[in-house]
Write a structure and sequence with these properties.
With 552 residues, the protein is of the alpha/beta class. The chain has 22 helices and 16 strands. An 8-stranded mixed β-sheet has the order 1-8-4-5-3-2-7-6. The chain has an 8-stranded parallel β-sheet with strand order 11-10-9-16-15-14-13-12. It is elongated and about 85 Å long. It binds 2-acetamido-2-deoxy-beta-D-glucopyranose (2 copies). Keywords: Glycoprotein, Glycosidase, Hydrolase, Signal.
Length: 552
């Protein structure tokens, strides 16, 4: 106790003496800059790496009342303005309060002496087009110039502007010595655009229900890594949480009355995502993975004891699919729609007498009937003006029957896209060995080095690989652990899909990529995303021991 008193009375004044005078003798930010070598731990790491950029060696300060100035036909968009407000909160996280207890005087002094000395007080955003349709392949390119007095983002679409604002936010960092937001390594010239048009994350709301607010948080976090597609695996064998107005008993197959999505919820999610430049691709997986449909409509089961795949022999089955798709078309404007088609075990068809009879009458084997089902579902999707996406099994079972508009979704392993594009189909890469996030023992570097174009050398075939997607299957995740299972590993795929192949290929993973990813994970944490330690051997584990965010 005595010792504590001693420390208290003796050391505290010393600490005050040492710490306080230092800022008080400084007459402006520039002085602080030159006198204190800054601690360059994080400010200039970008993720994903832009296509082209150059930087300098100056430090610019950013005015906490940074002003948005817009130009061009699309500049006045709500999408731009709302993004600016979101990012203002992120960038000026530490500058929001006027009250700083014992340092009140210090703050006042600083304010009065430097208020007009910020290097950057305007963010000028020019958007050339006023077309806000978030189509597949929408132009996401932008140019970001950071020079003294001016930061400009120029883009053809509002979605390019969003990507530019994200990059701008990553250039900004809070300097604790001067209590200002700074941009290091200025001036910057960044010309950026994505490598692939489709950069997805899949969420599965059938194995565990995810509340709407949690889906929104995940969408927010996706935009930080420049993902642009949320693949929403809405329903599956275990549950059917979605409201379908034309078949109102379908969501009787939800886990409970509250674990459901109204059509308004779905619409809200799509809009929320659009404001962040993210398309939502819905999935209704047929004919397998469908047992839950029959809770509300038992006629969809081949029999009460053999419940999937959906009964191929009945018109009612296709009426229901048609009703679902017509309803969903009003909500999901994205031109891709996922029809599943994976892991179809036809045993219930060959073992159920009335289906067996139907197969015989139509001279079909169970495998033929699987093909018939997939093609018929595709026709419904095509009639709704959707391009159908199917898991790879459909392509493998009948590569010549599918619509030429089909996009084959690889998952089982590597090497499938080369076959699909050789047949002229488009392909999405999701090799489960590296890009299934539920495989928690896959480390970030294995995610990072996966290459969607592996084994494809013909440039015209390479173009058919529209991108890739990491999949967060839901058996072992719910609200309690989903963010840390997704992040930071999803970010590794995000960079692979955004940045030029040459820059990710030649990167030295340990010395250049890892520090940037460590930094990005801390950025996610600062923004409230529960991203797990980067160096985990098992995803989503807690840190091993005490230590800095930048080193775990
Ligand atoms: C589905 O739910 C509705 C509303 O709760 C109920 O009226 C109906 O009987 C249920 N149908 C089946 C087949 O469970
Ligand atoms: C990761 O888990 C999978 C599935 O449990 C297993 O097959 C594989 O061997 C594991 N790999 C490593 C490196 O532990």
């Amino acid at each position: 106790m005595l010792l504590h008193m001693f420390y208290f009375f003796f050391f505290i004044p010393c600490v005050l003496f040492v710490v306080l005078p230092q800022p008080l003798v400084v007459d402006g930010l520039r002085e602080i800059r030159t006198k204190q070598p800054h601690f360059d731990e994080s400010p200039t790491y970008l993720w994903p790496l832009p296509a082209e950029f150059t930087s300098g060696d100056e430090v610019f300060t950013v005015d906490p009342s940074l002003e948005l100035v817009v130009d061009g036909a699309g500049g006045a968009s709500d999408i731009v303005r709302e993004a600016f407000e979101r990012y203002r909160k992120i960038i000026f996280e530490h500058s929001g309060s006027d009250y700083v207890a014992g340092r009140f005087r210090f703050k006042r002094v600083l304010r009065e002496s430097i208020i007009s000395e910020y290097d950057v007080s305007q963010l000028k955003i020019t958007v050339h087009s006023d077309n806000e349709e978030l189509q597949f392949g929408v132009d996401e390119s932008y140019t970001l110039l950071v020079s003294a007095g001016e930061v400009t983002i120029e883009a053809n679409t509002v979605y390019g502007a969003l990507r530019g604002i994200e990059t701008f936010s990553q250039l900004c960092s809070f300097d604790y010595a001067t209590k200002t937001v700074q941009i290091h390594k200025a001036p910057w010239v960044i010309h950026d655009q994505p490598r692939f048009a489709y950069r997805g994350l899949m969420l599965d709301t059938a194995r565990h229900y995810l509340p709407v607010g949690v889906i929104k948080q995940i969408i927010d976090s996706m935009s930080y890594a420049k993902f642009n597609v949320l693949h929403w695996h809405i329903v599956d064998k275990e549950s059917f949480p979605l409201e379908v107005p034309s078949y109102p008993n379908l969501w009787n197959g939800s886990y409970s009355k509250s674990e459901r999505y109204t059509v308004e919820d779905a619409y809200e999610i799509v809009n929320f995502a659009k404001m962040r430049g993210i398309n939502v691709m819905a999935e209704v997986d047929v004919p397998g993975h469908s047992e839950s449909w029959g809770v509300g409509y038992p006629d969809l089961w081949p029999s009460p004891t053999c419940k999937e795949p959906l009964d191929v022999s009945k018109d009612f089955t296709f009426d229901v699919i048609s009703g679902i798709l017509t309803g969903l078309r009003q909500i999901f404007p994205f031109e891709l729609f996922h029809l599943g088609g994976d892991e179809v075990d036809t045993k219930c068809w060959s073992q159920t007498p009335h289906v067996q009879q139907w197969l015989q009458d139509n001279n079909l084997t169970p495998t033929d009937a699987y093909g018939y089902f997939v093609v018929k579902a595709q026709e419904i999707a095509l009639s709704e003006n959707w391009s159908p996406v199917n898991w790879q099994e459909a392509f493998q079972a009948f590569p010549y029957n599918l619509s030429p508009q089909t996009i084959v979704h690889n998952w089982v392993g590597p090497g499938l896209c080369p076959y699909a594009v050789a047949e002229g189909y488009r392909c999405i890469f999701s090799n489960q060995k590296v890009w299934y996030l539920d495989h928690v023992n896959v480390t970030w570097d294995e995610v990072y080095t996966a290459e969607p174009l592996e084994g494809i050398y013909d440039p015209s075939q390479q173009k058919l690989v529209i991108g890739g997607e990491v999949c967060m299957w839901g058996e072992h995740v719910d609200t309690s652990d989903i963010q840390q299972t997704i992040w930071p590993r999803a970010a590794a795929a995000a960079e692979r899909l955004w940045s030029p192949r040459e820059s990710t290929l030649k990167a030295n993973i340990a010395t250049t990529t890892l520090p940037r990813l460590l930094n990005f994970r801390c950025l996610l944490n600062r923004r409230g995303v529960a991203a797990a330690p980067v160096k985990n051997l098992q995803a989503r584990q807690a840190p091993d021991s005490a230590g800095s965010c930048y080193d775990q």
